Structure formats: C-alpha cells, structure tokens
C-alpha cells in the first residue's frame, strides 16, 4: 500500500482545505495523520485536484475506502478507512449539489447503507456511480432489487445517445419541489428532441456562481426571485474568494427605470455575474406579478421571462437555444453537398473524387483521407456553400456565430493563417507614412505588413530575459513614453495604430484593457491590433477571458459609459493639466503622466482588432485562423478598406475543409470550451508541480515561473504560479498584474542537462521518444498543453523526463564542472533594435523609419552585397554602420532580428553567432548577410 498523506490536516467539512484547484474546488483534506490507497489511486501531490475530475475521483476514493472497510481486519486500518469514507461522503454532499441527476440522492442512500453496516450494497451503488461517470454501461447484476423506480428511469436515461446538457435553477426549494421539477422535465422530454437535459437546483446566488465555475455541463440558467444571497455550504476559502471576485468585478448595468425594488437589483446583479463568468450561458427569469413590466426592462440580461406555469415553453426554449449553439451552417452545407449527386463541369478534377477513385495509381489518396474529403471538394460557390470573399449564406452565418462565441462585433475566417490575417488588418487600417508602434518581437508577418503598406514602424522594446535567451513583453510605461515623445514633437497625429502580441510565444500575457485605456488617454482615436495567435482558447475560461482583446474592448466600452468613470476622468485631468484647462500644450511633465494610471475620455473610440491562429490552440485544420473586430467606427472608417484588404490577401479558391473545421470548432468551444480549457490549465499545472517536486527532476530541470519571466516591477508580489494555489489566486493575479504567465505553457530551464535546447528537442525528445515541442531557446524548452492534452500524455512526458534526467545526471557526473560553467556563461545579451540608418530614419529624433524604401532598394541587384559575419564584425568594429538589406528571421519564434534599413550592430552579430536555431530566414550561411551598398 502507498501512503497518500502523512501530514496533519484540519478537519474536513463540506469542501474545505488548503490544496485547492484551478476549477475552484479543493481536494478533501484528511483528518487523520495517515491513510493508504493502492498505487493506482495514489493522490499524486503534483496533480492538483480539479473541477473536471474531482467529482469522479471522489467517487473512486470512496469506493476504495468502502472496499477496505468491508475487508479490513486490522482495527487501526479499519478506523482509518472509516474516516476516509466519511470525509469523502461529506465532500460529495457539497460536490453533488452542483451537478444534476442522481448524485445527491445516492450520497444520502449510501450514507444510510454504511450506517447500517451494509457495505456490499453500498459498494454496489458506488460502483454503479463510477461506471456512469465513466460513461460505461451499467453492469447487469442480480441486485436489481435495490433499484427504485427513479433509479431505473435514470439508468434508461443514461443509455440515451443524444447530447446532454444541464440547466441551473436558482431558487430556495424543498427536496419534493426539486424532485417534481426533474419529473416534469422527464415528462416533457420527447423522442423527437435533439438534446436531453436535467436540472441542477441551488438555493443561493453564491451557489449559482459556484455551480457555473465547477460544472461545465451547465448551458442555461433559470433564475427565480426566491433565491437567497449567500450559501449555507462550507466551501473552501479559495472558492469563497473566487465567488467574491466574480461578483465584485462585474460592471453594473442600468436597472429598469420603473423599478427600485431590492429584489430586482439582486436578480440583475446575479444575472450580470453569471453572464460575465460564462457568456455562453442562456439566462431565463421566472417571474410572477408584473411580468409584463419586467419583460421589456430585462431583455438585455435575460433571453426570456416566463411564469412558473410555462414549463412547456421553457422546455422548448431551452432545446431551441442549445440547437443554435449546436448549429454549424457551413459544415452542414458541406455535408449536404457531399451527399448530393451532381455533375462536375468546372475546374478542380479532384472534386467528387473524379480524378482519384478511378485511377490505378493514386487510389491510396482516397484510402488514406477518406472519400468524404473528395466528395466535399468543389470550386463552385452554389448549392449553399457560399463565397468566402462575398458571403451571404452559410459562411456569413458561420462567421456571425463565431463573432458571438468570441465576443466580437464582426468575425472573418482566414484560410491561410494568421500571417495573412495580420497583413489584412494592417492594410485595412494603415496608409503610407502613418506611424505604427510595433512590438519589436512580434511575428515577422507584422513587419512584412508594415513594409507592404508603407507605414513607418516605431519599434517598442520588450524587456529581455537574457538568462533564457528570449524576450518578455513591452511594459506600459515604455508605450506611454513613446506616445508622449510623439506628442512633444508635435507628431502625435501621425500615430495611428499599436500592435502587440498577446500572449507571446513564451506565454507572457498583457492586460489589454489597461494598455488600451492608458494609451487612449493620450490619443483617444488610436487603433489596436492584438496578435493573439497563441491565445484563441482564452475566450472560453472566466479568468483568461478577461485578458483577451475582445473581452477587454467590451469591458472598456462599458466602463466609459458610467458616471463613475466620467467623474474619475475629470478629477485626473485636473492633475494632468495643472493649469486647469484642457488646452493642448499645457500638460504636466511626463513623469506625472507616467506615474498615473491614465483614464481615457468618456468619448474615446474603442477600435480593437484581434487575429487568432484558431488551429494552434483550438480545433481547426492547419492555417485556420480568424480576425475579430470590435470597432465603434467600423462602418464609417474601416469596413470598405477592410473588405478591400481581405480581397487582396484571400484566395478566390479557399479550402472548404479549413472553413468547415473553423465552423465546427466554434460549436465545440461554445458547448464544452470551459471544460476543455480548465482541463488544459490543470494538466499544465500538474506537469509543473511534478517537475518541481520529483527529487530527480528538480535536480535536472527547473520550471520557470512568473518570478522568472516577469520583472517584479510589472507584477504584484504574489505566488510564482498562482493556479497552484487555486482559482482565486489566479483570478487575483490576472485582475491586477501588468503581465501574467499563461499557465498552459511550461518553460523548462535545461542548463544542467549539458545540452542546448535544439539538441534536447530533436535528439532526445523527438527522435528518441516521439515527443514534439514547438520552441526552444539556447537553454529552455517550452511545453504547451492544449484542449486535446490528456492525463496519459502528461504521465508519459513525466516518465520520459525522468529517464532523460537519469541519463543526463550520469553523464554530468563524468564531466569537468569548470567546462560546464564556462559553457553556460557564453550567451550574450539579447539585442535591442539598433536604429534605422540615417537615410531611412524619419527625423533622427523619434525612432520610426521608412522600411519600405529600404526593402525595395534591397531587391535591386546592384544595391546589395553579401558580407560574411567575420567581415561584417570587422566593419562594425571600425565604426562603420552597415545597413541590412532585408529581414533576418530565426524561426521559431519567428520575429526578425534585422529589418530592411536597420543598422547592423555588434550586439546583433554576437547574438546571431551563438543562435542555435536551425532555420533562419533571410540569412545564407555560405554567403553571409545581405547588406545595402552605400549610395553615391
């Protein structure tokens, strides 16, 4: 037997204890000092308990403890088992409150059986629950005499193949009322219904918040005004704090003008909180008197208002609304097209499999990919398939549904990656000689887009992480200072857009709301482009969502419309313009502006664009991306230009399979995105904890935390990995810190292995064990979890890391430590952007330059020479300023070290000399760097 807890702990009451989880519920702590479990059920201290698995794990532990209790002969072990049984039962009493179906009734019945000493029947009941939670077939055993009528009905329901969801009801009810509600739901269920559902009934607003934070199956909520405010459950401190944070951060909306009742305010407050946590939830109100008055006033919060007797209408509405989430108009159109017999008289011989299925030589293409892939191919836009360039039917509807899911005003599908999406947005919004503030380390597509548009980039420097050979993000004070510099030079009107990467390849996440608010306070008509190539998943979790561009734009728009914001703005303007006026030219010193957290004017314009590589973090085929728009001036100032840019960069023959995958991937995240993202974050935390706690792993590897990746000045004093401490800790950090670290990305420092990151990736992880990773630096490896990551995959990775650690430790024991230290100190500092050469700099004072002119000069054969690194270093050493003729881009991570027109510095050459990336675009190792010849 394996020890699972050997430390004193406080008594477990309901759901309490210190070891909390990302989903908001902690694992039950043990009252006794020791308890035992088989190795297969060991509670791995590196595996945090979580909402998506705590329920099933608790039932598993209960089954094992009851089995021990039934068979244990040793008195001490029997007592320990008895304590474990009662602790798990108390935990399940609260856990099951937030789930539909049989749970609460089973807990009560099992408790009675255990009290009576009928361990065999209790074990039988628990086994049935475990099988149901695993979605296994309930075993047919001769103990059916223990099944009551309701349980038999539940077993019949379990075999229903239709998709299932749960509906939260918030109201003070009796057990009889709850049973009656569920019975009525069963009565209304019909064989023609596409979906089935069951009710979760909770008595208070606190419990409602807890339920939507822990139960991802809930897709709708019915609010009855009889609910109480606070829970009577004994919840963990973490969950209590998460509930408080969730309810405190909601931007209050306007109450109905005709109502000042406190009960109405309570209902509205709960509705706003639930909508902020889970925007995909549909909210319904059950009202009594004055329903007609409430109906018109509450439509912004509630989809419909019903009377209690309208159960059939509520039932039909619930099913109809979920069918809207389930709808995939373009995927359905593709399926319909594939099934339809047609004659093909257009381009594309592969359509309908015409050139494949009859071939003697390439029939294996259909064998490998399947016939449906070929049946769905066509170059025609008729038959309901629509046109991506001018959609009016299925594609238009699919894009509108995606906009709803991601919180955008408009969404556009892109079938050739986010590189193209970035170019579309730049071309739509920028014109020659406009100034764009660009994150120096953003993806190369932004730099190429700037060159194509003729805009002048002013590069923003991210803070360097020299010890790990990659960059962080751009601090807000640097962005503000550059805007103030442009204002001081009288050129602020030239600055049109800011583009930043959120989150970075290495997981550094901005606070977009703060960045946009403070920048708009200096220039109220700025446009923002957030490259969220690696952050599409974030829209579907209540904590990560707040740092997405679309959620931040919506929240900022709401804030600007409040009277409290207007008052705060007026008060701050008096400090920023000490002369007492608003006249330009009389602002306070820059230090004052930098010290304040700036407040934008109430009439500032919210103009926000986000590009996302949907295929990188959600379900979509490769190159499937989206552009999300939240632009208050869309029709007046952007729509026509955007569509022209979209036409410029979008193929007239888009890949329909990519479009279909974007459509069905949207369905997935609306219906189960919360569960998938929570699991993704929890598994990453499990990996980091396993490495940090395993004796061998922590001697060889080190998990980089927020304390390593974010300077202290850019975060509040807090835990290095907040999710380890629970949802509330993560929530607090993501609400307050300037930068946070995406928990789904685990960066491992590998200096003690004695090999560089590229060697570790290819020779050890990929070639030896088949483990694929995206990115390494000279001494780090980045492991990413995603919504497809499994617990088995995490376990396999840990097993591989242990094997590698053993190998490296053995090799290290035979090495000369002095040589190792010398090797580890060879890495030079990361280079900043030097400057545009004098010929291409705009004014010599501010940093922007004409990159486009330098690029096209670099395309002229006589204007360019190739110079070896050694010769180039000599020239720089003599004081010359050679100028890059093109982009030099190590890949990954994909941002240029040199751009056209940039002065080549010694720092850049030193960095390139030790770079271990195998793929470097724009640099030929045989011929050297492309350098512009001096002009006569």
TrEMBL record:
Domain Orn/Lys/Arg decarboxylases family 1 pyridoxal-P attachment site, chain residue ranges per copy: 328-554, 607-791
Keywords: Aminotransferase, Transferase
Cofactor list: pyridoxal 5'-phosphate
InterPro entries linked: LL-DAP_aminotransferase, Orn/Lys/Arg_deCO2ase_major_dom, PyrdxlP-dep_Trfase, PyrdxlP-dep_Trfase_major
Pfam families (alphabetical): OKR_DC_1 (PF01276)
PANTHER family linked: AMINO ACID AMINOTRANSFERASE, BLR3474 PROTEIN
The protein's name: Decarboxylase
């Amino acid at each position: 037997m394996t020890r699972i807890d050997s430390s004193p702990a406080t008594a477990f009451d309901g759901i309490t204890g210190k070891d909390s989880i990302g989903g908001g519920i902690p694992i039950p702590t043990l009252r006794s000092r020791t308890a035992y479990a088989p190795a297969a059920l060991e509670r791995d201290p590196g595996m945090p308990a979580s909402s998506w698995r705590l329920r099933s794990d608790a039932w598993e532990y209960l089954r094992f403890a009851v089995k021990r209790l039934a068979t244990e002969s040793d008195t001490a072990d029997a007592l320990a088992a008895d304590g474990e049984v009662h602790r798990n039962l108390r935990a399940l009493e609260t856990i099951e409150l937030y789930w539909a179906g049989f749970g609460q009734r089973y807990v009560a019945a099992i408790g009675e059986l255990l009290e009576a000493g009928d361990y065999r029947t209790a074990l039988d009941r628990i086994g049935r629950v475990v099988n149901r939670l695993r979605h296994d077939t309930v075993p047919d055993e001769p103990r059916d005499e223990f099944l009551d009528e309701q349980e038999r009905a539940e077993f019949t329901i379990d075999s229903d193949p239709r998709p299932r969801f749960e509906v939260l009801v918030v109201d003070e009810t009796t057990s009889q009322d709850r049973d009656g509600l569920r019975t009525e739901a069963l009565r209304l269920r019909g064989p023609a219904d596409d979906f089935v559902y069951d009710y979760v009934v909770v008595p208070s607003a606190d419990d409602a918040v807890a339920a939507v934070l822990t139960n991802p199956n809930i897709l709708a909520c019915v609010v009855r005004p009889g609910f109480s405010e606070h829970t009577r459950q004994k919840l963990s401190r973490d969950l209590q704090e998460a509930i408080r944070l969730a309810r405190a951060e909601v931007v209050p909306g306007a109450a109905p003008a005709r109502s000042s009742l406190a009960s109405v305010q309570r209902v509205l407050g709960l509705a706003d909180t639930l909508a902020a946590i889970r925007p995909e939830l549909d909210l319904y109100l059950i009202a009594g008197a004055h329903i007609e008055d409430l109906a018109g006033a509450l439509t912004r919060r509630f989809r419909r208002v019903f009377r209690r007797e309208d159960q059939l209408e509520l039932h039909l509405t619930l099913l109809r609304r979920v069918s809207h989430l389930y709808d995939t108009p373009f995927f359905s159109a593709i399926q319909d097209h594939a099934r339809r017999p047609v004659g093909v008289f257009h381009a594309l011989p592969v359509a309908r499999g015409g050139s494949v299925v009859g071939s003697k030589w390439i029939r294996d293409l259909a064998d490998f990919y399947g016939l449906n892939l070929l049946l769905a191919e066509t170059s025609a836009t008729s038959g309901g398939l629509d046109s991506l360039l001018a959609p009016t039917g299925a594609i238009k509807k699919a894009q509108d549904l995606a906009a709803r899911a991601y919180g955008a005003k408009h969404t556009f599908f892109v079938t050739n990656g986010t590189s193209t999406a970035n170019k579309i947005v730049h071309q739509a919004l920028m014109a020659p000689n406009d100034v764009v503030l660009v994150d120096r380390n953003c993806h190369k597509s932004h730099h190429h887009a700037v060159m194509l548009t003729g805009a002048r980039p002013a590069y923003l420097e991210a803070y360097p992480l020299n010890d790990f050979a990659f960059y962080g993000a751009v601090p807000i004070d640097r962005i503000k200072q550059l805007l103030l510099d442009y204002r001081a030079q009288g050129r602020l009107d030239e600055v049109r857009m800011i583009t930043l990467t959120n989150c970075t390849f290495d997981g550094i996440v901005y606070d977009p709301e703060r960045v946009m608010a403070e920048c708009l306070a200096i220039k109220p008509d700025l446009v923002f482009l957030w490259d969220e190539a690696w952050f599409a998943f974030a829209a579907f979790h209540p904590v990560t969502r707040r740092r997405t561009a679309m959620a931040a734009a919506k929240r900022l728009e709401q804030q600007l419309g409040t009277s409290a914001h207007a008052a705060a703005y007026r008060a701050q303007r008096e400090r920023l313009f000490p002369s007492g006026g608003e006249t330009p030219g009389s602002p306070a010193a820059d230090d004052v502006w930098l010290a304040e957290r700036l407040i934008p004017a109430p009439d500032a314009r919210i103009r926000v664009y986000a590009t996302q590589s949907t295929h990188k973090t959600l379900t979509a085929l490769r190159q499937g991306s989206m552009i999300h728009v939240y632009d208050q001036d869309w029709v007046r100032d952007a729509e026509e230009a955007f569509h022209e840019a979209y036409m410029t960069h979008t193929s007239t023959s888009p890949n329909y399979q990519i479009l279909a995958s974007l459509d069905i991937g949207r369905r997935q995240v609306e219906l189960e995105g919360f569960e998938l993202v929570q699991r993704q974050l929890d598994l990453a935390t499990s990996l980091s904890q396993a490495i940090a706690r395993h004796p061998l792993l922590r001697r060889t590897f080190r998990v980089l935390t927020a304390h390593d990746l974010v300077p202290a000045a850019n975060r509040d004093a807090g835990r290095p990995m907040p999710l380890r401490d629970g949802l509330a800790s993560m929530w607090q950090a993501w609400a307050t810190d300037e930068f946070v670290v995406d928990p789904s990305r685990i960066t491992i420092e590998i200096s003690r292995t004695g090999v560089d990151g590229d060697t570790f990736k290819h020779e050890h992880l990929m070639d030896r064990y088949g483990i694929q990773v995206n990115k390494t630096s000279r001494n780090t490896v980045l492991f990413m979890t995603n919504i497809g990551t499994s617990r088995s995959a995490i376990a396999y990775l840990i097993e591989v890391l242990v094997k590698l650690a053993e190998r490296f430790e053995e090799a290290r024991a035979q090495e000369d430590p002095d040589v190792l230290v010398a090797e580890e100190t060879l890495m030079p500092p990361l280079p900043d952007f030097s400057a545009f050469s004098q010929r291409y700099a705009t004014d010599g004072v501010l940093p922007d330059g004409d990159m486009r002119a330098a690029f096209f000069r670099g395309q002229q054969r006589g204007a360019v020479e190739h110079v070896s690194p050694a010769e180039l270093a000599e020239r720089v050493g003599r004081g010359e300023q050679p100028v890059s003729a093109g982009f030099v881009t190590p890949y990954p991570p994909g941002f240029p070290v040199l751009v056209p027109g940039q002065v080549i510095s010694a720092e850049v050459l030193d960095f390139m000399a030790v770079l271990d990336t195998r793929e470097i675009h724009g640099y030929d190792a045989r011929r050297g760097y492309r350098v512009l010849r001096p002009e006569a």
